[in-house]
Amino acid sequence: MKVGGRFLGVAFLAMGIAAAGLSLGAGTKDAKKADPAKSEIERGRYLMITMGCNDCHTPGTLYGEPDFSRMLSGSELGWRGPWGTTFARNLTPDPETGLGTWTAEEIANALRSGVRKDGSVLKPPMPWPNTSQLTEADLHALVAFIRSLPPVKHAVPAALPPGGEYAGPVVPLPAPGKWDAPASMSAPPPAAGTTK
Ligand code: HEC
After folding, report:
1. Are the C-beta atoms of residues 97 and 151 closer than 8 Å to each other?
2. Which of the residue ranges 41-45, 86-90, 176-180 would you say has the lowest mean pLDDT?
3. Domain coordinates of the chain in residue numbers?
């Protein structure tokens, strides 16, 4: 009994030392990882991927093979609808063809409000109503990640007004049926006798 107890005591002591060693090791590793700027960019990367920004902004993604060496460098696939034809823009920090001349706040503001720094509104299918729901901390992390990307020189075609012709590939959205039509396209005429 006594011997067994002592043996157990020693065993527990040894386990205690091992556990302390382990947690000490983990602590040092965490301290090394905890560069706040780096972890913000990591979080931004996580948000960018899970929010689907690659889908439209990274070439190949819609075809099942994203080319991450050209991550978020824009697309030449046109999206055609009542708004005209739009193209997912180059988000990399290239000053001529990307967002290189935008400040972090200007990018954040476009994602928050759907309005670019020149006052124009982001057209479909850019899902800014989704990004407008991000917390400020997440929004800043997402922008920090975008700004950390390697710049890629790639001018996407300019957006076209309704009726504009584009020779490249286009995703044409057909006129919606009754169920899918946005209110602006399907508002019934005001009933007779109402003030509206
Ligand atoms: C379904 C396709 C699609 C997805 C997904 C998408 N975008 Fe876009 N994005 C577009 C299109 C199209 C435009 C251009 C809209 C226009 O011309 O008005 C655009 C424009 C932008 C712009 C404006 C850039 C400029 O030069 O004007 C920013 C910033 C942007 N997207 C960021 C993002 C981020 C961040 C995500 C992920 C959270 C994202 N987008 C997801 C299609 C998409």
Report:
1. no
2. 176-180
3. 39-162
